[in-house]
Amino acid sequence: MIDRSVRRLLSPIVTVAVMACSSAPAYFVDGEPFSTTSAPLEQRTVQIKNAGVFRGWDMNEVGPGQILGRLDVRKREVVVLIDFTPDHFSIHYDPGTSKYNGETVNKRFNNYVKDLESGILQQSSIQTGIPDPSVGETSLQSPGPAKMQASFNPVAKGAASTKNSHVNFRCPDQGTVIKTSSGRSLEVEGASGFACKLSNQFGEFVQYAGFASGDAKEAVREAAEHLWPISIGKETTAQYTGSGDSGTQNTNVVYWRKFKVVAAEPISVRAGTFNAYRVEVEESSNSDSYHDRATYWWSPELGYIVKYRFIVLRGVNHNSPKDWEVVNVIKPN
To answer: Which long-range contacts (CB under 8 A, 24 or more apart) does 139-144 make?
Structure first.
């Protein structure tokens, strides 16, 4: 494996904002191979953006194979230009930004660049679900425009900010075992589109599009499906009818289930620390007697939820699910 600790002096055209405190020879990455090979440029773009966003960088695509990254550090700005092909990537301090003496930068800036490099390598080992045209479509890719049902009301609020990126859906790798704090051990049996086929000690079941069960109402499954590709601020809402809040057979009760991607953030659980999207799912009804919220932390690395929290905001739920988190992940050999 190529040594990732390459240090070189930047050429005179490369500059960086420099703090007055201690400095070090400028660090950059030059032609480093990704963790996986033969991925399309579009997939590399998503992976690099994800690596930056999860570490607090603004990631702006400035051209094919080029992303400009900005990180605010104590009122100073680190700016890098990431050049990449399907097989390799480079990270250089961006020319013309702030001051650079031709030899050194603040040593803390080098740490941020190294962390970004590590994140890119980590993300490049993840299947994002973007198809390679040379091998045809993949079952993990986001679907094309869906046929809208009257009961389904997708809402997409606002354009993605510069701190945002889009990640396509994936299921965990087949054979992965996920152990949770609830005492359940889940084994991944396979995947078909948005359906992740799992099993535990009670039998087989399907988790659909990350945040819905396989036997959920069609409108709910479609709403969960339309969160993908996932990005911060994205919302969808499902509307459906069901029994009354007290469990009666009154089918005139209208329910709304709202999905919203709230944040991208690291989350620490007993299995370790994961980069995750925090998704809040709220359910309410036209009777106005019940309202709950489920919060999911979905990890692109794992392709599954790593933490779950549930709270009743109004009314009573005699079957409230318990909070849980992942305590161990065993990947297939």
So the answer is: 139/191, 139/192, 139/193, 140/168, 140/169, 140/170, 140/171, 140/191, 140/193, 141/168, 142/168, 142/169, 142/228, 142/229, 143/193, 143/225
Taking the domain 23-123, which CATH number applies? 3.30.310.80
CA dihedral sign, ordered 180, 184, 189, 193: negative
- Residue spans of alpha helices (H) in the chain: 41-53, 107-123, 218-225
- DSSP 8-class letter at 166: -
DSSP-based three-state secondary structure for 46: helix
Ranges of CATH 3.30.310.80 domains, the chain? 23-123
**Residue 262 pLDDT class (50, 70, 90 cuts):** very high
Q: How many residues does the chain have?
A: 333
Ranges in the chain annotated CATH 2.40.360: 152-330
Q: How many CB atoms lie within 10 A of CB 235?
A: 18
Task: Please name the CATH architecture into which domain 152-330 falls.
Answer: Beta Barrel (2.40)
Distances (CA, A) of 100 to 15, 24, 82, 175, 225: 4, 12, 18, 50, 47
At 303, give phi and psi (nearest 5°). 80, 25
303: helix, coil or strand? Answer: coil
Query: Do strands 152-156 and 104-106 pair parallel, antiparallel, or not at all (unpaired)?
Result: unpaired
User: Over the stretch 89-146, which tens digit does the pLDDT of each residue have?
Assistant: 999 987 666 455 667 777 778 888 888 998 898 888 764 433 332 333 322 222 222 2
DSSP-based three-state secondary structure for 148: coil
pLDDT of residue 207: 95
- Averaged pLDDT, 23-37: 85
